Structures are given as C-alpha cells and as structure tokens.
Amino acid sequence: MSSGPLAGIRVLEVGTMLAGPYATMMLADLGAEVIKIEPPTGDISRQVSDSYFASLNRGKRSVCLELGTEEGQRRLGELVAESHALLVNLKPSAILKLGLTYEALRRHNDKIVCVALTGFGLYGGDDPAFDYVVQAATGIAALTGDPDGPPTLPGYSSADNSTGLTAALGLLAQIVSGRGGQIDVSLRDVMLSQLNYHASAYLNDGVRPQRRPNGAHSFYVPAQLFPTAEGHLALFITHDGFWRSFATEAGLTAGAQLPFATMAERAERRDEVLALVSDALATDTAQGWEARLKPLGIPAAAVRSLPEALEALPEMVVAAGQYRLVGSSVRIDGYEPDYRPPPTLDEYAETAQQS
C-alpha cells in the first residue's frame, strides 16, 4: 500500500484518451488505488502509442469488463461496493445507458462519488466535444493569435487537462464531505470559468476581449512576448515596483526621471511603452535579459522549446518502469510518489486470480 495522502482511497475509472485518465493519474500519483475499467479492446489511447498511454495511465490497474452485459454490470457493482469514487469520461448517452451514475449505483454503495466528465454536461447532449472544438466554442481560440491573423489554438490539450484537474478536485471534495453523490464536470464549463477576468470585464463593464500582438495582457503593460537580439523574451510587469527595477536595468531612466511611472499611465499609453521596451530589449539576447532580470525579481523568461525546458528541469523527469515521464506537479513533504508503469490490459484480473 502507498503511504501517500490518498492511501486507502479506491477510485474506479471508465475513461478514454486524455481528460478522465489524466484526472485519475493525478490521484494515483498521490497514493490512491486507481482501477481502470476497459473494454476488451482497451482504452483507444493504447492505439495511439505506448508512450502516449503511459503519460496518462501510470500507476493504475486495469480490468476488462463488458459493461453492456449482465456479467459486466454484476462485476461493476462488486467494484463499486468496495470503492470511494467512480470517474467516467464518456458520452452522456453512454454514461446513462451503462448505468454509470450515482442514481444507478447507489444501491451498491450509497457513499460512492460518481463524476461524469463530458463535453457539455451529463444532460447536455452528445455533440462531439474534443478539446480543440471546445476551445473554439468558448472564445479561447478567438482570443489567441496575432490580431491580423487567424484564430489560433494552443499547442497542447489545455481544455482536457484543465477539466481533468477540475474533475479530480470535485471528486476529492465530495469524498471529504463523507457523502456520496453525482458530480457533473464539462469541458465547456471549465474553459468558460477559466476566462474569469475577461468574462467579468465583459459582463460588468461591457469590455469585449480582443487579441493583442505577441499575446499581450489586457490590463498589464508591458506583459507579453518581445523579440530580442536573439530569441524571444516573456516579460510580465504587473506593478510599479517591477517597472521601476526594469526601467533602471534597461537604462530607460533619464537621471531620476522614470517614464510611464504608474500602471494607469502605462495602460493608457500602451503603444509608446511597448515601443520603448522593444528598443531596449533589442540590445541583448533573451537569455541575457533573463539572466539580468531574474536576480532583480522581475518576472521574465526566455522562450524555450519543450526539450530545452525538460533539460533545464531534470528533477521533473521520472522513471515509471521503462518509461521516462514528467512527474507529479504536487509536491508533499515526506512523500515521494511510487511511479509505476501503466497497466497491461486486464492486469488487475490477473493479479486477483493469483491472490
């Protein structure tokens, strides 16, 4: 048994591809026993690549059940009776048809926590809800990219990952409450909630969000990507103290005079500020600026590729059997996750037969 903070917690997963499996893998990293319920053909992500499957399913067990059969439902009931939670990542119609809800399963265990992770809600229909589709539908793509170019999607599955984390949070909250029940988490709702300050500005002040060059922030100036003598630098000046330190290091002060001294002035005269900062940053490389600004406490980082980022943070790379993966982002004093490889198909059934 794991000595992690979730030791003794058993979570069942009926998940596919990314969002659901990522949620339960985070729980497994924290010591929960996660049993992945798969059809005889396995989670479809097994067909993508072994490394893809490993990146979302390390540390779990696998059991094959035909949930559409009487025998599959019988075995599901037995597992539910011995578990704390069930997380399901399927179409709403499949969740309801297969009886993977609290109302259907409470007869086995009235404290079971059932999480439905869907595109638009458990009763929101079966419209396709892939990550990129949801980003387009919720305004994220419209906010991303150059103002003069087309809408752009991030280079990774931000909706799936964010929804997985939210589902894990909801699952744990209900377990802590000591009550069973149904939890409904959708990709659409999660991504709208993450547009928090943009949505608030529109709902309360009528301010429509807009794309800005180089991913510039709506309120803070300067806070965006800048080209340098070599490479790009992310600079994020959120208050006047940061600005004063940056302006001094960049040689923008004339004697004791600090240009654009207040946040309000910088926001009002955005174009002038950006022109001044761009000229200054062009005098050194992105790596050079990062080295100069970090000791001053100024938020700045050179744009790195993923391989460069992994090389810079070797402690985040862990071994799970034969796989090298990015480890858990949750650090707990005195606890080190047991990074085990992903399960072979129906591995839990084989283990149960041996015991």
Strand order, biggest sheet? 3-2-1-4-5-6
Q: Count the helices. How many?
A: 16
Instruction: List segments where confidence is low: pLDDT < 50 over at least 5 consecutive residues.
Output: none
Q: By helix and strand content, what is the structural category?
A: alpha/beta
Under the CATH scheme, which class of the largest domain?
Answer: Alpha Beta
Oligomeric state of the chains present here: single chain
Computed CA radius of gyration, to the nearest angstrom: 24 Å
Number of separate strands: 11
Largest sheet: 6 strands, parallel
- Share of residues in helices: 25-40%
> What is the number of domains?
2
Series of secondary-structure elements, N-terminal to C-terminal: EHEHEHEHHEHHHEHHEEHHHHEHEEH
CATH architecture of the largest domain: 3-Layer(aba) Sandwich
